[in-house]
Design brief:
The complex is a heterodimer of chains A (106) and B (78). Chain A is mainly alpha-helical and 106 residues long. Chain A contains three helices and no strands. In chain A, helix 1 packs antiparallel against helix 2 and helix 2 runs antiparallel to helix 3. The longest helix of chain A is centred in the last third of the chain and has 32 residues. Chain B has one domain. Chain B is built from three helices and no strands. The chains are: A mainly alpha (106), B mainly alpha (78). Chains A and B meet through helix 1, helix 2 and helix 3 of A and helix 1, helix 2 and helix 3 of B.
């Protein structure tokens, strides 16, 4: 029973992370890609951490899992914010003339 | 999950600007964390979680440092 629940969560995680990867390839500007990485992948890692806590139920795993969860949930949006701010500052006209050309490369 | 590593690598190689490549590297690091946690479930050793924690910290700090570097390089040019 526990193995079934863990396997289901693992498959859900694989599908979610695959969707995030397809999104990072298919979306057309930087902010949409950043949106995919920040939210969808954090949700995938959250499901994976729930799976490992269901599979082996001890205290050490719980504490390490909570540490990884807090790093990914509280610090990864800060990094995405800094990246978006710098990108906004580097390419202010990213929505008007951004068509995948190399001419805005600094 | 290994298949989903291909698409950020493609984006990393042909990404038009440098923040695109930063975002693709974030995604690759998150997939690496997922693979490490899956291996931890499979092998039963709880020391893989330390490795996952360090990789996720490096993800955050690395992307912050790259953003800082871009900011500083642009400021020096102006």
């Amino acid at each position: 029973m526990i193995e079934n629940i863990t396997g289901t969560l693992l498959i859900c995680t694989a599908v979610i992370v695959f969707c995030a990867s397809v999104g990072i390839l298919r979306f057309n500007n930087l902010y949409a890609r950043m949106h995919v990485v920040t939210k969808v992948s954090s949700f995938g890692v959250l499901l994976l951490l729930i799976a490992i806590n269901i599979y082996e139920r001890n205290m050490v795993t719980l504490i390490k899992t909570l540490l990884i969860f807090h790093v990914l949930v509280f610090l990864s949006p800060i990094a995405a914010h800094v990246t978006a701010k710098v990108a906004r500052w580097l390419y202010p006209d990213i929505f008007s003339t951004y068509n995948g050309s190399e001419e805005h490369e600094p | 999950m290994t298949v989903s590593m291909i698409f950020p690598l493609l984006r990393l190689f042909r990404g038009p600007s440098l923040p695109d490549r930063v975002v693709a590297l974030d995604q690759i690091a998150i997939i690496i964390v997922c693979i490490i946690i899956c291996d931890t479930i499979y092998s039963g050793m709880s020391s893989g979680l330390d490795v996952a924690l360090v990789v996720s910290l490096l993800l955050v700090i690395g992307s912050m440092i790259i953003a800082r570097f871009l900011h500083k390089r642009r400021s020096d040019n102006d």
